[in-house]
UniProtKB/TrEMBL annotation:
<feature type="domain" description="HTH myb-type">
    <location>
        <begin position="9"/>
        <end position="66"/>
    </location>
</feature>
<keyword id="KW-0804">Transcription</keyword>
<dbReference type="InterPro" id="IPR017930">
    <property type="entry name" value="Myb_dom"/>
</dbReference>
<feature type="region of interest" description="Disordered">
    <location>
        <begin position="123"/>
        <end position="173"/>
    </location>
</feature>
<dbReference type="Pfam" id="PF00249">
    <property type="entry name" value="Myb_DNA-binding"/>
</dbReference>
<keyword id="KW-0677">Repeat</keyword>
<feature type="compositionally biased region" description="Low complexity">
    <location>
        <begin position="123"/>
        <end position="146"/>
    </location>
</feature>
<dbReference type="InterPro" id="IPR009057">
    <property type="entry name" value="Homeodomain-like_sf"/>
</dbReference>
<dbReference type="InterPro" id="IPR001005">
    <property type="entry name" value="SANT/Myb"/>
</dbReference>
<keyword id="KW-0539">Nucleus</keyword>
<dbReference type="GO" id="GO:0005634">
    <property type="term" value="C:nucleus"/>
</dbReference>
<dbReference type="GO" id="GO:0006355">
    <property type="term" value="P:regulation of DNA-templated transcription"/>
</dbReference>
<feature type="domain" description="Myb-like">
    <location>
        <begin position="63"/>
        <end position="113"/>
    </location>
</feature>
<protein>
    <submittedName>
        <fullName>Uncharacterized protein</fullName>
    </submittedName>
</protein>
<keyword id="KW-0238">DNA-binding</keyword>
<dbReference type="GO" id="GO:0003677">
    <property type="term" value="F:DNA binding"/>
</dbReference>
<keyword id="KW-0805">Transcription regulation</keyword>
Amino acid sequence: MGRAPCCDKASVKRGPWAPEEDELLRSYVRSHGAVGNWIALPHKAGLNRCGKSCRLRWLNYLRPDIKHGGYTEQEDMVICSLYNSIGSRWSIIASKLPGRTDNDVKNYWNTKLKKKAMGMGIHQQQQHYHHQGAVGRRGASASAIATPPPPPAPQSQCAPSSMMHPSPASASSAVTTASAGDVACSFMYSDAPAPPALPHYHNAEFSPPVQPTTQAAAANGSWASGMMAFDDMFLPELIGGGGDQFPLQGDLFAGYLGPLLQDNYRLPSSSSSAQLQLQELSACYFPNAQAEMWAAADHAKPPPAGLCPSLT
DNA sequence: AAATGTTTCAACCGCGTGTAG
DNA sequence: TCTACACGCGGTTGAAACATT
C-alpha cells in the first residue's frame, strides 16, 4: 500500500503551464504574499492544478528574482566546487547562487557543466578512497557494511587549485534548506587519539565530529560515530575575495577541515600518514562527487553504502 | 528538405523530514 | 508517543528545440 497521492491526478491539469495559469498564480501570490499552504492554493487561486505543481512553477519559474541561463564562469566554479564538496545537494548549491533555483542548477550541471568539468581533466589525488555510503536525507545508515577499497577516485578540475580558510563566522551563515546532519558521515577512526574538547561553533550547522560516544571507543583509544554537517559556506569566501580563487575538493578539506582536525586530534600536519588520514576522512565526508566522477571516468563501480573500511 | 540523433529544461514522481494535533 | 499531513528535495521523464546527416 503506497502513499496517498497529494491530489487527484485524474482531475487536475498536468503538463506545461499556460500563460493564463501563470498569471492566476502570480496574481494570487502577489495579493496574498507568502503561500502558507500550497495544497490549498489551487482551489483558492482558481487553478486546476496540483498544489505541488503550483509550488514548483512559482519557485522555479514565476518568482520575480529568478535568473535563467547566462551562467557566469564564477557561478560555474561555485557549482563545480560545491558539487565536488557536497555532491548533488542542489538546493544548497542553488542557495549560494542568487536568482538560481535548485532545478535550474541541477539541469545546468547535468546538461552542460558536468561535461565541461570532465573535459577540463580528471586527475588522481587520493591514494585511498573509501565511500561512506548513504549520505544525507535519504537512507543514512550507520549500520552500512564496509566494503573493500575501490580504485582511487578521480577528481574533476573545475578551477585553479587554491586553499580556502573560511572564518568561523562564515560557518554560521544561514542555510534554511537543509537540516543539521545533512552531508553527514559516520565513521570510526581507530588510530587517532581520543579527541580533546571541541571548539564551540556558532550554531549546529557546521559542527566538528563529536566526541566518543561509547565507553569502549574511549577505552581503546578510538572514537566513533562522528557526524558533521557541512552545508554552509559563504559565497564570498568560496570565491576567494577577488573571485579568482577557488577551492577544489581536496583543497577544501585540506584548507579548512584539515587544520580543524589536526587541531582537534593533534595530527602532525607534516606527517604523510596524517595527510593520508585526512584524505580518507575527506573522502568519507564528501563522497558523492567522487562517486559520480568515478563512474563517468569509467572506473569500476563505486562500492555500495558502507563505512570507510580503514576507519572501522 | 526530410529524417534522424542529440540536447535542453520544465515538469513530474516518490520519498524523507518536520510538525501540528 | 503516534499519526497524518504538507513541504522540500533529488532523480527522472518526455516533449520541444536544435544539430547533424
